[in-house]
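Researcher: Please predict.
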Amino acid sequence: MKLCLPALVLLVSTRWQRAEPLSTLVGHSVEWKMTGCPDGSEVKTRDNEVLVAKKVNGTWIGEGPYDGRIGESHSSSLVLTDVRFNDMDLYESSCGDMRDDLQVIAPDDESVREGEQVLLKCYLKTDESVAVVEWHKDGKSVMNITASTLKSNRTGSETRHVSPDCFQTGDFSLSIEGVQKEDAGVYRCSIHNDGKTRWGHPPAVRMEVTNRTTAMPDTVNTPCPWETATVVRTVVLTVVLTVVLVGILVVGGIFWYRRPRRPEASPESPDEGLPLTSPVNRGTIAG
């Protein structure tokens, strides 16, 4: 019995050893290989103990919050589609040895115009044991970087390259010159060493390529619509104020000209214009 105990402990530790984490992007899908699982088998999240899917009549059916998100699959695989950030958890099955830690990544967004240059950030902690650093676009390798390529001054292609001292600084940011429409996609960088993979920071960058814009000649200065409206309102207001002011002046002049005037005395009749006094009735003195 004592001889079997170490073997049993080794078997249990091997069975429950956490595998290399799965990773996918928000909105993408992830697939698990499920071989030899009979009807009635279940997949649950270990941390939340939520039922994810159950196998019925040879097909995996989503349960609860996973209903409608189990994609087309056959008896040996389970596909989770439209992955959400809250799906990040540890998944276990009641059959086989599935025990996968799912990492869900929300990529950074980068927008660039066609024909311009862009720098996609990615940082990795490196040491002397690092073998290969790789850049991926939409899951496909687009560049491999090793110490030997750096020593030979080969840091990429004519349009894509990294800094020559990236292994010393840990900055493996990818520079792309003359960006084209087909360069749009999700980019990630990773380190491969001793059969293990480590992803960089940020975990992913989603690059959008917009249409090239044609610059207007310097001699043409087209005003904005709101600027044109402001000019029109100013001109109309000036004209209205001018008309009102002129009207006030004209009316005022007419009233001033037609005002009643006092008669003026002429030189020939100096007494003209003097106020008249009533004769005094002095009466007669009686004798």
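Model: The chain has a mean pLDDT of 78.
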